[in-house]
Design goal:
Shape of chain A: globular
Structural class of chain B: mainly alpha
Number of strands of chain B: 0
Order of helices and strands of chain B: HHHHHHHHHHHH
CATH superfamily of the largest domain in chain A: MetI-like
Helix content of chain B: 55-70%
CATH superfamily of chain B: MetI-like
CATH topology of chain B: MetI-like fold
InterPro entries (chain A): BPD_transp_1_N, MetI-like, MetI-like_sf
CATH topology of the largest domain in chain A: MetI-like fold
Radius of gyration of chain B: 22 Å
Strand order of the largest sheet of chain A: 1-2
Distance between the termini of chain B: 16 Å
Subcellular location (chain A): Cell membrane
Radius of gyration of chain A: 25 Å
Strand content of chain A: under 5%
Membrane topology (chain A): Multi-pass membrane protein
Largest sheet of chain B: none
Largest sheet of chain A: 2 strands, antiparallel
Number of domains of chain B: 1
Protein name (chain A): ABC transporter permease
Main location (chain A): membrane
Shape of chain B: elongated
Number of strands of chain A: 2
Largest interface: A-B, 51 and 42 residues
Number of helices of chain B: 12
Oligomer: heterodimer
Order of helices and strands of chain A: HHHHEEHHHHHHHHHH
CATH class of chain B: Mainly Alpha
């Protein structure tokens, strides 16, 4: 088991490197663009040229990537903070420390000052959504898969299909039209600021609802499929035939085995949630990580895009590791192989 | 998984039995699939007939309607914030979505299928290389990858297709690889190998057609998902360049007015949902049918 975890972790670290190189390649593919975007649209071409020289942007992509990695790991000083450049990119942490993501040109602050607060706001949003998605989809999925083809199964399955067919921005529009414009029960924006007259918790209701609706549709269908498959197994028939009450069969025999496959699916939802928050935060003007990535991309804030993607990737890859290890742990066929 | 293709089972277990009727002919037996197909055909018909329908041009501004953009006899679904007819923009926008989304999904299949077949059929180093590369792409939160790509290469129909290919092909390769692994050891492949068929023939003529059941389902789901993606990109301000109608962009423009004129965002949102629902229902119906065999 220890070997298995180590092998998985090593391959995931490799994936992280490769993926971060991919992001670097996409954002810094055109070197003159890097200098231009760092200085902004109003800089003189001569200034852009000087920066181009100073940053060594003529070097090949791989060399520039290793330099960026050096700054991130605290092995090299961030070249943009060099006072000789006169950019005034000041970071109180110094120019050489582990986790130096550089300077955000959009927020005019070190990336580390911008990113973590946003991440916390998003973690709250995604965390509440996740805490609702899991029990809701487990209950609905088990109820549906328990008696395949029953009326309840059909109703829940249709709900599942419909929920996965309504993208977050569309359900956002529907919910806002109903609860904000129509009934006036909830606020339509979520700046997480009590000054708007709405308590903070009311501002969380709609963004969470949008995330839960879209994601749970998919998980419900997965749980249902797995449950239905288990219910057709011979040992379930045996349990029923030996006279156990249905409740007992479902709770003690079926559910535990039916949960192995959806376990992976549920953890991978964290990856979907990161995608989902980009849209949801845009709908409700929620001051989070997803909207920050969007703003950074539209503005061309290279350092922030790279940092944010790397963090999102790390989260996604860590959940993948947990799900791989957990799956192996739950499923003896893999654990003992 | 449901991936054990019934076709393969039929071939190995009862070779003399007549082949089951094609999926297309059994489609009417699934009400779910028929509802889905109906929704898709509804939009296809409107998109095809768009030039013949008595509609305002999609970019024509009716300045009189600016005073009261609500639905009326003149504009059935009302007008948008620039006085443009929403019904006309939806129908003309359907042409874009219904050509870009299937084209993008198909292109992703053209790239993903050979990769998955090669990985599954050859195994070994080929498999390791293709699977590792796929893992890298699949580990991304997908929308973030789209946003970074499109923000850098610019929004256009071609770039959206390219982004979909890059992000969807690895997933398709993974599915095809899994299906190939299941089939590779069956007798009909051994027979083809004994006949000394070349590897390309075995992969594309023998293996691929026998994987079609799950792939048809996956294709429908993927078209639906691509429609969601195009909608999201439009909504985030990375949609097809204005002024031509794009459903996601219409929703985005409408949300600015949602508190006074909800119809401007509700109708485009409903249009997107109905089309996605069509593809998802069709996918579900096809899956049920291929399981029932």
């Amino acid at each position: 088991m220890g070997r298995f975890i180590f092998k998985r972790a090593a391959s995931l670290v490799l994936t992280l490197f490769a993926a971060s190189f991919l992001v670097f390649a996409v954002t810094e593919f055109s070197p003159s663009n890097v200098a231009r975007k760092t200085l902004g649209p109003f800089a003189l071409q001569s200034q852009v040229d000087i920066l181009y020289q100073k940053l060594g942007l003529h070097d090949p992509l791989a060399v520039r990537y290793s330099r960026w990695l050096g700054v991130l790991l605290g092995l090299k000083a961030d070249p943009l903070q060099d006072p000789a450049l006169g950019l005034q990119f000041k970071d109180p942490r110094g120019d050489k420390y582990f986790g130096n993501f550089g300077y955000s040109t959009l927020y005019k602050a070190p990336v580390n000052d911008v990113i973590w607060g946003r991440l916390k706001a998003t973690a709250a949003l995604a965390g509440i959504a996740f805490a609702l998605i899991v029990p809701l989809s487990l209950v609905l999925g088990v109820l549906a898969g328990m008696r395949e083809g029953s009326g309840l199964d059909r109703t829940i399955s249709i709900f599942g299909i419909v929920a996965t067919s309504v993208p977050e921005f569309a359900s956002g529009v529907f919910l806002v039209a109903l609860f904000v414009v129509g009934l006036g029960w909830l606020p339509g924006t979520s700046p997480l600021d009590a000054g708007s007259g709405w308590p903070i918790w009311t501002q969380m209701v709609l963004p969470v609802a949008v995330l839960v609706l879209y994601d749970s549709g998919y998980v419900v269908r997965m749980v249902r499929g797995s449950m239905a498959e288990v219910m057709n197994k011979p040992y379930i028939r045996t349990a029923i035939l030996k006279g156990l009450p249905m409740r007992e069969v479902v709770v003690r025999h079926a559910v535990r085995n039916a949960m192995i496959a959806p376990f992976t699916v549920i953890l991978l939802q964290i990856n979907f949630l990161i995608s989902g928050v980009v849209v949801t935060e845009m709908v409700f003007a929620y001051p989070g990580f997803g909207r920050m990535i969007l703003d950074a991309s539209l503005f061309g804030d290279i350092a922030l895009i790279e940092a944010a993607t790397l963090i999102a990737l790390t989260i996604a890859i860590l959940t993948q590791l947990v799900s791989d290890v957990g799956y192996a742990f739950l499923n003896p066929q893999i654990r003992l192989a | 998984m449901t991936a054990t293709t019934p076709d393969a089972a039929a071939l190995t277990a009862a070779p003399v039995e007549r082949a089951p009727p094609s999926l297309l002919r059994r489609l009417p037996h699934s009400p779910v699939a028929m509802v889905g197909l109906g929704l898709i055909l509804f939009w296809v018909a409107l998109a095809v007939l768009a030039p013949l329908l008595p509609l305002d041009p999609p970019n024509k501004q009716d300045l009189m309607a600016l005073a009261d953009p609500r639905p009326s006899w003149r504009h059935w679904l009302g007008t948008d914030f620039k006085g443009r007819d929403i019904l006309s923009r939806l129908i003309w926008g359907a042409r874009t979505v219904l050509s870009v989304a299937p084209l993008a999904a198909l292109s992703a299949y053209v790239v993903g299928c050979p990769l998955g077949l090669a990985a599954g059929y050859y195994g070994g180093k080929v498999d390791t290389l293709i699977s590792r590369l796929s893992d890298i792409i699949l580990s991304f939160p997908i929308i973030i990858l789209y946003v970074i790509l499109i923000a850098n290469i610019g929004p256009s129909a071609l770039n959206i297709v390219l982004a979909v290919v890059l992000t969807a092909a690895p997933g398709i390769a993974r599915i095809v690889r899994g299906l190939t692994l299941e089939q590779r050891h069956l007798d009909y492949i051994a027979a083809a190998q004994l006949r000394r068929e070349n590897a390309l023939y075995i992969m594309f003529v023998e293996l691929l057609p026998n994987c079609r059941g799950p792939l048809i389902t996956d294709f429908c789901l993927r078209v639906g998902y691509t429609i969601i993606t195009i909608g999201i990109l439009g909504f985030l301000g990375l949609g097809l360049p204005p002024p031509d109608p794009d459903w996601g962009t219409m929703v985005k423009e409408g949300t600015a007015m949602i508190s006074v004129r909800p119809h401007m965002s509700l109708f485009p949102a409903l249009a997107i949902v109905s089309l996605i629902l069509g593809f998802n229902l069709l996918a579900d119906g096809v899956r049920e049918l291929s399981l029932r065999e």
